[in-house]
Design brief:
This protein is an alpha/beta fold and 314 residues long. It folds into 2 domains: 2-151 and 199-309, Metallo-beta-lactamase, Chain A (4-Layer Sandwich); 158-193, no CATH class. It is 24% helix and 26% strand. The chain contains 10 helices and 17 strands. The protein has helices spanning 40-46, 64-67, 70-79, 93-103, 158-163, 170-176, 214-219, 237-243, 248-258, 276-282, and strands at 2-8, 22-27, 30-34, 54-58, 86-90, 113-117, 121-126, 129-135, 143-149, 181-182, 188-189, 202-206, 225-229, 262-266, 289-291, 297-300, 306-309. The strands form 3 sheets. An 8-stranded mixed β-sheet has the order 6-5-4-3-2-1-16-17. It has a 7-stranded mixed β-sheet with strand order 7-8-9-12-13-14-15. It has a two-stranded antiparallel ribbon with strand order 10-11. It is globular and about 70 Å long.
């Protein structure tokens, strides 16, 4: 199961109930953090994501509301004794930003930190999860991220392996991982012979800040979950275009055209308070739209079923 945790769902100015953008994706001991808005360190703690987990951070662009929380997170991890290495991915400006942030920590970070300046393409691949970056249409260089869970094989079938005469042990593990093995008599056994068909991949797409664009539309095609900014409603469409953002209606149209299963609207302007106007504009166009709120969780099962939970876990 994959869990998506919204640590911050706010727009450019945080409010009493909504922090700056930050979204955590949890899977089998990994935490992938998408953006690191202001005060993400306290939200991270409130969500109980774990101090010393395997972790990677993916920043969409170097605007203040998406990176102000990164120095505090590095400081908190260091003060509490994190030891696992941390990889950070994003635009090249992040390299200097993280260096300066580390210099403000008295003894430096207690863990190895590597910043990767990236462009479009696959940037991460661990434990059935991969991350692909794609360029979006904001002000200056900005990225979106496509997170995909995919297995090369289905469930391993021990009874089938025994029928083929494969001894239990390393060869079972190799077959379960999608490899073929050779038995002592020279017989070759394929992974397909002893595993169920591979499950359908799952795809989570995060837009970052962007106007609607073809690269986002392509990434979102048949996505299980699309997490997209909806900074404005159509009443402020001119502002959206000028400032490189999307309206809720435009995002809903994009989700409908792309065959998205579930649309999560986030990063809306504080002028809309708790977002009633935003979700009210999107749902008539794309009914399976949900408004994000801080500490909301989405549990995505490997069959594609999504369960939305509020901050109390229900």
């Amino acid at each position: 199961m994959i869990e998506i945790v919204f640590l911050g769902s706010g727009g450019s100015i945080p409010t009493e109930t909504r922090n700056h953008p930050a979204i955590a994706i949890r899977y089998e001991g990994w935490v992938l953090l998408l953006d690191a808005g202001e005060d993400v360190q306290r939200q991270y703690e409130r969500a109980q994501l774990g101090l010393n987990k395997k972790m990677a951070i993916f920043v969409t662009h170097v605007h203040a509301d998406h990176v102000l929380g990164l120095p505090g997170l590095l400081l908190r991890f260091s003060l509490l004794g994190r030891t696992k290495p941390l990889n950070i991915y994003g635009p090249s400006e992040l390299i200097e930003y993280v260096k300066v942030s580390q210099s403000t920590i008295n003894l430096g970070t207690t863990f190895e930190t590597t910043v990767h300046a990236i462009g479009p393409g696959k940037v991460f691949n661990e434990q059935d999860l991969s991350v692909r970056a794609f360029e979006v249409d904001h002000r200056g260089y900005a990225l979106g991220y496509e997170v995909t869970w995919a297995r090369s094989t289905g469930r391993f079938l021990p009874a089938k392996a025994k029928e083929f005469g494969v001894p239990q042990g390393p060869q079972w593990r190799a077959l379960a991982a999608g490899e073929s093995v050779e038995l002592e008599d020279g017989t070759m056994v394929s992974s397909d012979d002893v595993t169920e068909p591979a499950p359908k991949p799952l795809k989570i797409v995060y837009s970052g800040d962007t106007r609607p664009c073809d690269t986002l539309r392509k990434a979102a095609k048949e996505a299980d979950v699309l997490i997209c900014e909806a900074m404005y409603t159509t009443d402020h469409a001119v502002l959206a275009e000028e400032r490189g953002h999307s309206t809720a209606a435009a995002v809903a149209e994009l989700a409908k055209d792309s065959g998205v299963k579930l649309l999560i609207l986030t990063h809306w302007s504080p002028r809309y308070h708790e977002g009633e106007e935003v979700i009210g504009e999107a749902r008539p166009i794309f009914p399976n739209s949900v408004l994000a709120h801080d500490l909301m969780r989405i549990r995505l099962r490997k069959d594609g079923t999504a369960t939305i939970m509020n901050s109390s876990g229900h």
